[in-house]
Write a structure and sequence with these properties.
The chain is mostly helical and about 500 residues long. The chain is built from 19 helices and no strands. The N and C termini lie far apart (about 60 Å). Keywords: Cell membrane, Membrane, Transmembrane, Transmembrane helix.
Length: about 500
């Protein structure tokens, strides 16, 4: 219990202290006109209140990640707490804040455009591929995972495929609506359900099982995984949302188009990632407390983590309130799935230069994406999750390197993004070399040595190109002078 409460206290302290430092290092300008005001189009660029922006950001980034990931991460034991707390404060929240604010300073640009500007135009194509791959996988995972949860609550005659179809219809309608109608009206209610259900799970866990919640002690630092799966690098991919997630780099720019003052950034971007870390801590603690490793592993294998969500909710809250808690969990992937499709539409449209100013053009981009996702729902969830995990963390690395280059060119402390970026880059290289979805080398000496060499080579290339880029800067370079919103330039 002390570790759970202490971890949550550290997350809040991280927001108050380190979050403030990150904000100071970025150097906000509260008087700067934001894209929401200057580029208002009534669809994607719409000024919204700080509260609505924050809850939309939380629901956009959360999905089932901060629940399913910690449930699977609980197999490793209390060591999972370390990654959630440290990862969230020093990597994930910094990642979300920097991408959101850099996007805000660049007319609400998405990650591929930012990578093109700060890392070079050839990188844009690679980042576009990764961003689109990640979002189509996220969108599909966030169709199948809520469908499984709903299927457990509904009568047998409402078959899984019908539920999946209904979710797609909801996504399609919401994707083509203006953001303040699709998200601004519904998400505050979704957010209330999520927050209340999470608090209920946490209080019930502390009151009823506080004495048995595993603590982080020297003996508990060992790997508890019943299958002996190694902590590095697998844990860092298993728990992504709740610690560090590249998916968030595709969501923060969407909210950067609705923020009306740069002062809101720390609460909206950094703060909501901290909130996601709290959710992750509660679900990891609940999974470790209520089930031994073998039982937890069997339930995950038998029915994805959705079976664990059901059992935790009913065991802690009973039938009625447990059902409400499950509804709170269902809210997360529904909101993130919708946001994934919306981001995917805008990224594809930007890449193909298809202006989204008529319903015909919106549907021309949207419909093919939904058809691809429908086909992917027939693929095994666990296989999708593995590909999602790797693409997700590669995207996080790209976002952290974009942020590093931004800070480096402006002469600010770039180590705050460079250190977590290099760490996760190494983990990504090890993962793709070792795992069945990659080169199948296994986790041996050869893999670690080869990953070290490849990571070092990429870091040297990144460093050299950055120095060259900085040496060629002129005082009026766009890399030094963030874009003013288009309609303000020249006034």
């Amino acid at each position: 219990m002390l570790t759970l409460l202490g971890g949550i206290a550290l997350l809040i302290t991280g927001y108050l202290i380190y979050g403030r430092y990150i904000e100071k290092n970025f150097q906000i300008d509260p008087n700067r006109v934001t894209p929401a005001e200057a580029l208002r189009d009534g669809f994607d660029f719409v000024p919204m209140s700080k509260g609505k922006n924050a809850i939309i950001q939380l629901l956009n980034i959360a999905g089932t990640g901060p629940i399913f990931g910690p449930i699977m991460g609980a197999l490793y034991g209390p060591v999972a707490y370390i990654w959630i707390v440290i990862g969230c404060i020093f990597a994930g929240a910094v990642h979300d804040y920097m991408l959101g604010m850099i996007s805000l300073r660049n007319n609400g640009a998405h990650l591929p455009e930012l990578a093109s500007k700060y890392l070079g135009k050839p990188v844009k194509h690679v980042v576009n591929i990764f961003a689109m791959l990640l979002l189509i996988l996220v969108a599909t995972v966030f169709v199948t995972s809520p469908a499984n949860l709903i299927d457990n609550l509904t009568p047998d005659w409402l078959v899984l495929n019908v539920i999946i179809g209904l979710i797609f219809v909801y996504y399609l309608i919401s994707t083509i609506l203006p953001i303040d109608k699709a998200l601004g009206k519904v998400y505050p209610w979704f957010g209330a359900i999520l927050i209340i259900s999470t608090i209920a799970i946490g209080i019930s866990l502390l009151v009823g099982h506080g004495g048995s919640i595993p603590n982080l002690t020297p003996s508990a630092l060992s790997n508890w995984h019943p299958k002996g799966t190694p902590i590095f690098p697998i844990l860092f991919f298993t728990i992504s949302c709740g610690a560090l997630s590249g998916f968030h780099a595709t969501q923060s720019p969407m909210v950067s188009r609705t923020v009306t003052n740069e002062r809101e950034g720390r609460f909206t971007f950094y703060g909501m990632m901290i909130a996601e870390g709290v959710i992750a801590m509660i679900w990891a603690a609940a999974s470790m407390t209520l089930f031994d490793g073998q039982t937890l592993s069997s339930m995950i294998d038998a029915g994805t983590p959705s079976m664990v969500v059901n059992k935790v909710s009913y065991m802690l809250l009973g039938s009625f309130f447990g059902t409400l808690a499950i509804v709170g969990v269902i809210v997360l992937p529904l909101s993130s799935g919708l946001s994934a499709f919306r981001s995917l539409r805008t990224i594809v449209a930007d890449y193909l230069n298809i202006k989204q100013d008529t319903m015909k053009k919106i549907l021309m981009v949207t419909i093919p994406l939904y058809l691809i996702s429908i086909a992917l729902t027939q693929v095994d969830f666990n296989l999708l999750w593995r590909y999602f995990n790797w693409a997700n963390q590669v995207t996080a690395v790209i976002a952290l390197l974009v942020s590093t280059r931004y800070l480096f060119l402006k002469g600010r402390n770039y180590f705050v993004t460079f250190i977590p970026g290099v760490f996760m880059l190494y983990a990504c290289v090890v993962y793709i070399l070792a795992e069945p979805i990659g080169f199948r080398l296994g986790l041996g000496t050869l893999t670690y040595v080869l990953a070290t060499v490849l990571t070092a080579a990429m870091v040297v290339l990144f460093w050299k190109t950055g120095k060259t880029q900085k040496a060629n800067l002129t005082p009026d370079s766009p890399l030094l002078n963030d874009h003013l919103p288009i309609e303000v330039e020249g006034k």
